[in-house]
């Protein structure tokens, strides 16, 4: 009998029958509270009726048309809707299918626009698994080892990971910016540097919000040297952090913004947005692929943005995020192996440490696994795998957060005792 590839290693034995809102029902009839939302993908909750209806309706009209041949209405509407929430300078949008593809498109664009080869990414960043995106990724060796040579022309600069360095945040920011300057002086000169790529909150790298002063430092250096500042909002964007975009916790705005994941509540679509003068530096045909801007995915994205607006989900992410954070802080108070609780909005995490303060991957994995027995789905992250992330849908209710915290408390106790 043919089996699934062993590469598709599942963290849980759950087989989904159906899902709604914050909940997943297994084929065994168990009901799980889903605080993974497919790594933040099901932003409006599982199978939001308006998203389902929009996709159903679109499927009966046209499923796919190559937008380089004929345009379709969902993509026109989506572009208008995104225009309402994007920084006004980013007045041109290009569509692809996945985060990685959009990352690749942004790198190609930065290189074509500047005529320079190098990209500087930041330690702990995750930008995807395609060979170029993997080269930008430093959220664990599993993402970049064993298939070299990966894309060249990439340098990884420090990210201000204050907790791991054991420093206060200001010291960590000063260090990261000084090291970046040193890199620009000694390894990748501005004349050779096309772009900086950074996540407003490191996702797979451990849910570390980029401090505003750090982002502002990148913006200043990008302005000064005509380097393209690319913000990868794939995980932090679309309301997740309690602002529509993760970078809106700072005063900066990017030259290129990348979005995917939560954009269409689970349908595969991604986009890069940039000023039209920058976007037009790539020539037609140099970017894109067969399924980019698929009509059903675009219709689901339009419905997603409407639901986020109509149901005030960005505000909900902020309010429910505070509730979640308070609960996690309380758990930390009674559990010395939770080294740090951090995050923004509904993008929260706990970093586990040993008694000696070293990264505790074993405990993070145990918490995730034991939580399944308490009918709570969680994900780990962190470059060293010692962080548990909590990512409810943006629609999550106060009762669901309370239930999730109760289950988490029980799972922590069981993982600890076990
Ligand atoms: N960038 C970030 C910040 C991500 O979190 C991810 C996915 N985890 C990607 C890019 C890659 O997206 P995809 O898996 O859709 O290719």
Description:
The mean pLDDT is 96. This protein is of the alpha/beta class and 418 residues long. It has helices at residues 37-40, 49-59, 73-85, 99-114, 131-136, 162-165, 169-186, 212-225, 276-279, 295-310, 313-333, 361-373, 398-417, and strands at residues 16-20, 23-26, 31-34, 92-96, 118-122, 154-157, 193-198, 201-202, 208-209, 228-232, 256-259, 270-274, 338-344, 347-352, 376-377, 379-381, 387-390. Helix 3 (73-85) runs parallel beside helix 10 and helix 11 runs parallel beside helix 13 (398-417). The strands form four sheets. A seven-stranded mixed β-sheet has the order 4-12-11-10-7-5-6, sandwiched between helices. It has two domains: 16-48 and 313-417, Alpha-Beta Complex (Aspartate Aminotransferase, domain 1); 51-310, Type I PLP-dependent aspartate aminotransferase-like (Major domain) (Aspartate Aminotransferase, domain 2, 3-Layer(aba) Sandwich). 38% of the residues lie in helices and 17% in strands. A hairpin with a 5-residue loop joins strand 8 and strand 9. The structure holds 4'-deoxy-4'-aminopyridoxal-5'-phosphate (PMP). Belongs to the class-III pyridoxal-phosphate-dependent aminotransferase family. Keywords: Aminotransferase, Pyridoxal phosphate, Transferase. GO terms for molecular function: transaminase activity. This is Aspartate aminotransferase family protein. InterPro entries: Aminotrans_3 (IPR005814), Aminotrans_3_PPA_site (IPR049704), Class-III_PLP-dep_AT (IPR050103), PyrdxlP-dep_Trfase (IPR015424), PyrdxlP-dep_Trfase_major (IPR015421), PyrdxlP-dep_Trfase_small (IPR015422).
